[in-house]
Amino acid sequence: MYSATLLEFFRAPKHVGVLPAPALQIEVMNPICGDILRFSALLEDDRVKDAAFQAKGCTASIAAGAALAEWSIGKTVLELGAVSAADVETMLEGLPNESKHAAVLAVDAARAIAKL
């Protein structure tokens, strides 16, 4: 069962889309389930000024992308690179065991952007 917060991120996601250059853009994929997350972040003075996502996959992956985009605005690159799967699960108020891959996908996206 999904939390009300996760379902809200899924049903009414904010920050959907791709930010234009000079925003950084990455795409990560879960090779087992095939879920894809595109994440873009516009950085200004080492902070995320704006973020956006596109996701193809399960309910949890879409919600995790939305939560990551919302959470990341205002964070430093260091904070973005240090986000954990547990942090994403907290943003979503929990994930069932079969959906924990969604948190890992979001973490992969955040860390990939932080390395650029």
Labels describing this entry:
single chain; 116 residues; alpha+beta; Sufe protein. Chain: A; 3-stranded antiparallel beta sheet; 5 helices
What this model shows, in words?
This protein has helices at residues 4-11, 59-72, 77-82, 85-91, 101-115; strands at 24-29, 36-44, 47-56. It has 116 residues and is of the alpha+beta class. It has a single domain, classed as Sufe protein. Chain: A (Alpha-Beta Complex), CATH 3.90.1010.10. It has a 3-stranded antiparallel beta sheet with strand order 1-2-3. β2 (36-44) and β3 form a beta hairpin. α1 packs across α2 and α4 (85-91) crosses α5. The mean pLDDT is 97.
Number of helices: 5
Strand content: 15-25%
CATH topology annotation: Sufe protein. Chain: A
Could you give the count of β-strands?
Answer: 3
Radius of gyration computed on alpha carbons: 13 Å
Low-confidence stretches: none
Shape field: globular
The arrangement of helices and strands along the chain is HEEEHHHH
CATH architecture: Alpha-Beta Complex
**Oligomer class:** single chain
Q: Which structural category fits the helices and strands?
A: alpha+beta
Number of domains: 1
SSE map:
Layout: H1 4-11, E1 24-29, E2 36-44, E3 47-56, H2 59-72, H3 77-82, H4 85-91, H5 101-115
